[in-house]
Amino acid sequence: MNATTLAQRAYAPTAAPTRSARSIEYDVIARITYRLKAAIEQGRLPPLLEALHENRKLWRTLAIDVADDENLLPDDLRARIFYLAEFTSHHTGEVIRKKVSAVPLLEVNTAILRGLKQERALS
Questions:
Q1: How far apart, in whole angstroms, are the C-alpha atoms of residue 25 and residue 113?
Q2: Local structure of 22: helix, strand or coil
Q3: Using one digit for the tens of pLDDT, what is the confidence trace for 49-62?
Q4: Within 10 Å of residue 107's Cβ, how many Cβ atoms?
Q5: 100 and which of 15, 24, 42, 94 could share a cystine (Cβ 3.0–4.6 Å)?
């Protein structure tokens, strides 16, 4: 090995580029939303229940995050996210009891994805 090869290896990236927290958040929500949409379209209960569970876990995690005093989001946004988490939890229960459609849950996630995508484009 010569000095040039050693220098190239030393300064070459050792890992994939670092992704932002927003980018990771977008990808997670997009994956869950895709699964929820596919389950709704299939109309089969087992995949829908799995997707609903995963979506409920996502929103529970978001609620816990925005309830943390050290969360840096503006209070108004934190309150709206917490409200959406509460709505998602309640509505999911209603979907499981076959009282309502799961489509509003899909619409909430899609709206969040639009907001995150817009935010990514601005930064």
A1: 9
A2: helix
A3: 999 999 999 999 99
A4: 11
A5: 94
